[in-house]
Amino acid sequence: MKAIVCNKFGTPDTLRYREIEIPNPNEGQVLIAVKACSVNFPDTLIIQGKYQFKPSFPFSPGSDVAGFVEKVGKNVKHLKVGDEVVGFIPFGGFAEKAIVNAKDCFPKPRGMSMVNASAFLLAYGTSYHALKGRANLQKGETVLILGASGGVGLTALELAKLMGAKVIAAASSGEKLDLCKQFGADEVINYTEENLKDRVKELTNGKGVDIIYDPVGGHFSELALRAIAWKGRHLVIGFANGEIPKIPINLTLLKGASIVGVFWGAFAQKQPKESLENIKQLLAWFAKGDLKPHIDKTYSLENAPKALEDMMQRKTKGKIVIDMEI
To answer: How much is the pTM?
Structure first.
């Protein structure tokens, strides 16, 4: 089978497109014929050796997959050969076939394309876990989303609106903010042209925001935290800016605020029952038409390194996907 292979930590141009052996599923696993795999920011980190864990070489990046079950390992009861599925794996998705733990593999809803299915689990799972489980978002609260036009940012925007919040979307260009408006943002901030803290204060009549959804990091994190409301919650999603911020912790004391970590992958492993309930709810919302993944661009498997480069250069909006049919 063909795959994108990482033989050493480095930038996307060090990845290789080559043929490798087809793996076999062990007990509790399935082999998926991958039809699509979305690109997520952690993929750019894992190939550089900057992620929370470092796979052994060689490996393929890619975690969100959609396709068909091709082989079933022992003691797998809820899946059979031929089933259309979505699944989540730590790495290995940028390949024509991938091994997925059966417990992390779910039937693909009817009417959901393979491309949309591959763009669903990690992004929506992260945002729903963040807003519901970590922030306890209440109807009528105000949410500030940094990097709001990105892969997880747009999902947070959709979900926050669906859960009854007012949303302030912050992004780095007018084009990106126009997309946020299309997805229902109540207010927008261009943080390359406007002072983030001052603008948030202005839009909230001095109160500040109840929840900050922060996949960006860098100096924007502190600016946002300085505009948080009393008992606000600052959700740490990731660091797309490339810089892990050093926050003056006295800010949390002054605002009675919380800085809350969000790691969906660990949540799904440690609290599988709650994670499954979240996924069922998200898929139900999709089936009703309440959630609509925004696919900015698709790439062939051979061009997956270009997809990673575009993500690192922040040239994308919403989700980008490796489509094995191209």
So the answer is: 0.92
